[in-house]
Every structure is written in C-alpha cells, then in structure tokens.
Specification:
- By secondary structure, the chain is an alpha+beta fold.
- The protein has two domains: 202 residues, no CATH class; 181 residues, no CATH class.
- The radius of gyration is 35 Å and the shape is elongated.
- The two termini are 54 Å apart.
Amino acid sequence: MTSEVFGSRMEVSFSPAAALMAAVLSFVTVLLAAHGPAKRMSKVLPIEAVRGEQYSISVKKAKSHPVLTKHFGFLGEIAANSVNAGRKLYHTCMVTLSLCMLLAFGFLAVFTVSDISNAQAEIRNYFDVNITLGAGERIDGALLARLKAVPGVQETSVYARANCAVWLSGSDQSAEFLQTGGFDAADGYIVERDGRYRVPCVLVGMEPDAYESVLREAGVGALPESSAIIINSVAKNPGARDYEAMQETIPYLNFQQGQRVELTEKYSDDVQGDYEFTVDVAAVIPSMPEIGLDPSFYTIPVIVPMEEYYSIIGNFSDEMEVYNYRNYVNYVVLDGMDEEIQGEAERICSVYLGSSDFMTSSKTERMRNRGRMTGATMFVVCSLAALFGIVGISSVLSAILNSLGQRRKEFAMLRSVGVDEKGIRRPLGMEGVLLSVRPILIGLPLLIIVCVAQCYMMGVSVAEFLCAFPVWALIVYIVLVLFVINGIYMLASRKIRDDVIVAAIKDDTV
C-alpha cells in the first residue's frame, strides 16, 4: 500500500530473536505473578492450612441497587453485587475492551476529520492539476510552451517564487493591523531587532501577459520598466479554525503606489546569502491573484515580471539561486479529466527533464493516495484493536469461568430453596449485561471526547463529522461486545445450572 503512494517498496523483516525475547518475557511475567502467592503459601503451616486459619475474611456491607431491586427483585440485587465483588477479576478485560474501542474508532475519527478537512481544501483549490519543475536552472521555454498548449486545459497558471524579507519600523503597520496586536502578536513569524522588524516576503515571478492583466485590474495603465505589485493584506484571525474566519483579511502595512521598497535575500538567520535589492511599487492590491499560491501568515507577496524575477535571483547565493529556479504550472480542467491531462503533462516533462526534476499531482490522484494511506494505517490500527479484543475476550472467559466456579455452592443453595432454572438464568443474564456495558460506558465517553477535540481543532462541524463517520460500525461493535460477553456467560453457566444440588453444596473445593 505504501509503495503505491510513495513509489518505493518497503522491505519488512522480523527477527526470530524478537519472538524469543517475547516468549522469555511472557515466561518471566508468569513466574513473577506466581511468586508472591507461592511465597505466602510456603509460610503457612500444614495444620493452619487444614483448619483454614490462613484466610482472613472481611465481610463488607453490600451496596444497594434500588433500580435493579425494583424491577428484578432480590435476584437483581445478587447479580449487581456479584459483578461488584468480582470487579478485580474483570479489571483486565474491561480495560482491554475499552482500549479496543478507543484505539480503533479513535483513529477512525481522526481519519474521518482529516478526510473532511482535505476534501474541503480540495474543493477550495481552484486548480485541478499541479506541476512542479525544478531542474536547477531556468526552465526551457519550449517545455513551458508545450505545457501551456496541452489540449483540454481550460486555464493555465505559471509562476516562480523565492523567499525574501523586508526590514520595517513599527510606523509601517496599518491602523487595523495594530488593533489586532501588530508585529508583536506575530511572534515566530516576524523577528524584532533594535526596534526594527524583519517581515517575511515571497518574491513571485509571473509571465508578462498575466502580470499586465493584474496591473490592468488594479487600474494601472502603462507597464513601468521596473515595478512590483504588493499584496497588502493579512489574516484578521490567524488562529481561527473556521475556514471562513481565516479568509477574513485587513490591511497589513502602509505601502503606497510609487514607493521604493528594499528587500533582502536573508529571510532567515540560517540563510548564507545577504543580497539586497529594491523594487518600485506599481500597485498595491488587497488580494492574491488566483495562481495557485497560498502565502503563509504575515508573509507579503511581491509580484514582479518573470524576467525581473530571474534577474534578481541571479544575485542570490548559489544554493538559493538553484532552488529558486523552480517553476510551478497549474491547470484548470474539465471534471474527470485531471488524471488524463496529468499523464500528458508527465509525458511532455519526461522529454525535457529527468524523472527527479519534475513532479505532478491531481485532485483524483491525491484523493486516491489519501484513501490508500488511510487504508494502510487502519489495517495496522485494526490489527492492534483485534489484539486488544482477543486479550479482552480471553480475559472475560477466564474471569467468568473463575467467578462462576467459585459460586457453585451459592447457586446450588438458591436452587435448594426453590429457585428454578429460569430464575438462575435471570441473575446470570443480568450479570452478563452489567459486565458487557462496563467497557462501553468506559470507552464511549473517551471516544466522544476524542471526536469532539478533533472536530474542534480541525474546524469541522459535528453535523459534517456525523455524516462521514461510520456510526454503524460503532453500533455493530457495541452489539458484538454485548452478544459475545452474554454468550460466554450463558455457555459458562450451563454447568452450574446442570449441577447436582447435594454434590455442589458438599463440594469444599476452594
């Protein structure tokens, strides 16, 4: 499954030493578990053991269960007290069955919320096919021409981008931005030194026709020889989880048309180069053109013509220059044609570039890959959940057999005073129900907390979550737990119901 997504096969190996170590640890665990009781029994004198003097029995007042008593009489009271008395026996199975529910459906909830969020992001994604070209040098114009001429493409966007920064003073902030906290509220994004602030920028190179189109929409007629378009907006609520709230913007800085802005290559202290360059602001617009670029919070997009872009990055440090030669090509295509056009784009790119110098993706491919990764991860998770389930059911079987074996005399006495087989089945059935609902009552609230937390963090509504989450699978699991535990109880209690009363009462086996 992972090889289909990442393109490389994962080699899985298992050492016999791991199995040997597991067996040794299991053996040592059993020895340690038996050591305490065995040590205590070794200190008991034979005469004390015969007389039973080593047992110190404390009788506690039984809890009252008015609801069960009202509907089921004293047999309901017996059932509830029996389950409470054996709670230590049932501790392991309750924990493991609760973990089984929490693990399987908790991860399923995480994937459900993630799928909803990714689906919403894909719907908002304007482009259907995305291509990244990175050969370490300027992309051949013939390749770009052929990519723009692919039949079936309704709209094409081509751009290049490079990270940079600008140093500003506090007075450069807009009044609206200052009201939300300004630069001081952008800790981690904006660096302050000696009263000045390093604000991250992204230098965007656009082809001349697209660049002129943006200028015309901004009301600029003639194209200056050297100019830049600045996107002057910032998210009003960058910490919002709701998409609509995240899209609300306010003016960022006090940039003006005709202003000269000095930028630097050194957008981070880790960058080796420190080339500085200036751009003349031809237009200041409030929103990013639809080219497929989504800038990070507090980042200023600075758009320049493609030739000017290459002229600027040619002065960057060698490492940054090579990286910033990347070009991004995005397509809008007809519904259902994205994979076909993606394949055609791959064929064209393979003529001009090596397989490691380009990458393509489409909405359909991304959706399929997410499904494969979810399936692979859920396979592992469900395997672990099945392991917890096996341990839990085994613990239930062991605990029930142990509990009923110790209570043979109790049920024989009930039968001796006139309680028939139906009367015996009633408290046993109630015990099974009370025992089976406990892991559900433990695991279900924890699962609900996990689901609500995931919806809250990812900005997904409860209605959207419930429409996508397989509630039926959770119901099936709950019904299965109830059925299995009650079935084990009924099968295990058959011997008690068939016991000879006198023989069971006389049985002194501890």
